[in-house]
Design a protein that fits this description.
Keywords: Signal. With about 240 residues, the protein is an alpha+beta fold. The chain has two domains: about 120 residues, no CATH class; about 80 residues, 2-Layer Sandwich (Alpha-D-Glucose-1,6-Bisphosphate, Chain A, domain 4).
């Protein structure tokens, strides 16, 4: 049975996809401040930890550090604006302030939000822009689908891959496609829960589980699929 603790990690993966999507990356590269090394300091007094042993976004190696600090959002944002330089880009996504800049062969992405008037939490992601080898998807997408996100994490024997795609098929067609595809890979449907604007389907298996969120948005359907495997399980 899938534990609810999956949801915060899934939400983080989606936020990082929004931060490091191709248009944002292209804008950050175009605004290159020509800094070097892919390093950025956290605000003074920040408590931090690494998200996972290994992370890949779009098959590119990525280091992600989560942090919390007893400083207001404006102060923390000013810190990162100075650290990233004037050649940075900024946007917002679902309550998060997102900043990004190219640093030599790396893309640095920062996401921030206030937990109250005096505290801020966030993350810093540093992605390498080398020639990343293509990684085969672990599922066949429906016809005419566009893949918009691919994040992999490995941590203490647990690996997770989150895929996001869009198409103009119905929610029911996408759910049916997922059921067929995942059954072929040895997953068992466990439960389904209605969510705002769509459906969520939970799957289990031997040493693995999966969660699919299928929602309608602006005339198209968005599918988020997270596949989780535990030590010793083959893909």
């Amino acid at each position: 049975m899938i534990a609810c603790r999956k949801l915060p990690r899934l939400a983080l993966s989606l936020a990082l996809m929004a931060l490091l999507d191709l248009p944002v990356a292209q804008r950050a590269i175009a605004a290159n401040a020509e800094r070097q090394g892919g390093q950025i300091a956290l605000p003074a007094g920040a408590a931090s930890f690494e998200l996972a042993d290994e992370v890949r976004i779009g098959a590119r190696p990525t280091r992600i550090r989560l942090f919390r600090v007893a400083q207001p959002l404006g102060t923390v944002q000013a810190h990162f604006r100075e650290a990233l330089g004037t050649a940075r880009i900024e946007t917002e996504h679902e309550g998060w302030r997102l900043l990004a800049s190219q640093d030599g062969a790396h893309l640095i992405g920062v996401r921030l939000r206030a937990t109250d008037r005096h505290h801020t939490e966030g993350s810093v992601a540093v992605t390498e822009f080398g020639g990343a080898p293509s990684r085969p998807l672990e599922i066949v997408l429906p016809a005419a689908s566009r893949l918009s996100g691919d994040v992999e994490t490995t941590d203490r024997g647990r690996s997770a891959r989150t895929l996001v795609w869009h198409n103009r098929h119905s929610i029911a067609l996408n759910v049916g496609h997922l059921l067929r595809q995942l059954k072929r890979r040895g997953y068992r449907p466990e439960r389904e829960i209605a969510i705002a604007g769509g459906r969520s389907v939970w799957f289990g298996g031997d040493g693995r589980d999966a969660l699919a969120l299928v929602t309608g948005r602006a005339g198209e359907t968005v599918v988020v699929l997270q596949l989780v495997r535990y030590r010793g399980e083959a893909g």
